[in-house]
Amino acid sequence: MSKILDLIDKLYETHSLSLDEYEYLITHKCDEATEKLRTYAVANRRKFYSNHVFVRGLIEVSNICKNDCYYCGIRKSNENCDRYRLSKEEILSCCNEGYELGFRTFVLQGGEDGTFTDTWLCDLISAIKNRYPDCAITLSLGERTKESYQKLYNSGANRYLLRHETADELHYSQLHPSNLTLENRIKCLRDLKEIGFQVGCGFMVGSPYQSVKNIAQDLKFIEEFSPHMCGIGPFIPHKDTIFKNEKAGDAQLCCYLLSIIRLIKPNILLPATTALGTVKNDGRERGILSGANVIMPNLSPLSVRKKYALYDNKISTGDESAQSLQNLKKSMHAIGYEVVVDRGDINTISKE
Length: 352
Ligand code: SAH
What we know:
The protein has helices at about 1-15, 20-25, 30-50, 90-100, 120-130, 145-155, 170-175, 180-195, 210-225, 250-265, 275-280, 285-290, 300-305, 325-335, and strands at about 50-55, 55-60, 105-110, 135-140, 160, 200-205, 230-235, 295, 340. By secondary structure, it is of the alpha/beta class. The protein has a single domain (about 1-340), classed as Alpha-Beta Barrel (TIM Barrel). The strands form two sheets. Strands 2-3-4-5-6-7 form a six-stranded parallel β-sheet. The chain has a three-stranded parallel β-sheet with strand order 8-1-9, covered by helices on one side. The two termini are about 30 Å apart. The structure holds S-adenosyl-L-homocysteine (SAH). The site of S-adenosyl-L-homocysteine has 19 residues, from loops.
């Protein structure tokens, strides 16, 4: 019993464990370890962010995608997916609504839609920056060339989310067709970091074929890559994919991993994801209580929210939406946290 508690102390002090040690943490998960991790995670988060929760307005710009990721509901070969793409005007009007509500970060996420040329995106990014100079722009538009990322950065984009999905090559090939490689994914992440973006990687918890060792590899990758942000959420099957009969990832394990990631990098920006809120009613609150400090409510037009279905049963009308920010504020307040109007950049200075 005490070995796991000792490992948690070691992680808290050194922010690093070996692959075997990460694996041990996961296989020996128990209530006492969960509690200890959570206590340390909350202490770490408080040092950098007090009791503040950052919100990001998530705008799902397109569900058109040239890729065929086996787990994803908007994969190219899903003929049942009702495709859409927002116009620049629609995106700007989402930003406008978000700004009024108090959002100071806009996240533009979408499939790898060929219409999103550098010119089109740079024009959009400049327009958002012009109107909302006090806001951060986060992109989550998949793999592009370094030259393209550089142009987007030069136009005013600040952050980029690109989950690595899994740090194991074999596992990567079990989740993606052969034209998508872990090598290129990692290259993109390194390019983004070199350019100067605040970068987010991440993975799904409980994706098909994922072993405990794979999760340990993900944690080691996060430790070594040291991203500014990290998105993890449970895998949820989608009915039109080959993984439709697979079981969803576990919310408790996801929260346990959020605490571990907060110990690996105490000042990381760590969202309690929509997927976590989908598998458990109070998933997002549990995520925050486990060490997360970011929530990404949906700012997409209501008419398209159901269409951006990466997985089944995505929450899409209730408290997850940006319009329900008041409810979110209340539910965060009830657990001792405060939603703030702030860009919410990574904080590098400890307050303690
Ligand atoms: N095209 C962009 C955005 C992808 S959607 C990109 O490639 O980065 C954002 C994330 O949703 C993905 O990185 C993936 O980890 C997650 N996701 C996709 N399908 C999912 C599913 N069925 N269950 C849970 N998460 C999923």
